[in-house]
Design the sequence.
């Protein structure tokens, strides 16, 4: 684009429009450091998007103000995201070493349960629902069969296969790198 093709052209362009851009930004931002940074950001954005300027669509100043509007809007979104993040953590107390130790103990204590869930994810969905109805929800095998519209014999066969699959998975090095055997199913 002709207005930012060479360093001299950009300097002339900058000198011509810096006052307009500074005023545009200053009307929208109350911090002088932010205003200065955003003014510089506008000119960086102008260089990056100079190829999109079309004189037939309006004046160069109007286009520059459009770029400035996008830069200021992006800054407002950034500030809003930071503010939202600050509000989310406000009021939460920081964790001390004892808190972290208790959380680590809890995570370690639930390691076996996480292995069982990973193993359950590897068996077919219909069989997994049967196992969950019996093991998690406390239904009898007959009740779970009825809930899933299975015959009692089909439910017994699936449960038998699921127990074997779970035992094999829990003893596999993929889910149980330590090699411990578990008696879950």
Sequence:
């Amino acid at each position: 684009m002709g207005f930012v093709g060479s360093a001299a052209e950009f300097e002339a362009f900058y000198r011509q429009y810096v006052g307009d851009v500074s005023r545009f930004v200053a009307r929208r931002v109350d911090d002088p450091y932010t205003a200065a940074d955003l003014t510089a950001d506008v000119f960086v954005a102008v260089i990056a998007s100079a190829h999109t300027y079309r004189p037939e669509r309006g004046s160069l100043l109007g286009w520059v103000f459009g770029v400035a509007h996008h830069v200021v809007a992006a800054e407002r979104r950034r500030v809003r995201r930071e503010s939202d993040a600050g509000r989310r953590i406000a009021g939460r107390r920081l964790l001390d070493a004892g808190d972290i130790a208790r959380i680590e103990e809890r995570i370690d204590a639930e390691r076996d349960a996480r292995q069982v869930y990973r193993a359950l994810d590897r068996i077919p969905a219909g069989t997994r629902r049967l196992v969950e109805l019996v093991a998690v929800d406390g239904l009898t095998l007959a009740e779970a069969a009825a809930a899933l519209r299975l015959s009692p014999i089909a439910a017994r066969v699936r449960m038998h296969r699921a127990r074997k699959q779970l035992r094999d998975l829990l003893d596999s090095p993929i889910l149980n790198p330590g090699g411990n055997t578990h008696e879950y199913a």
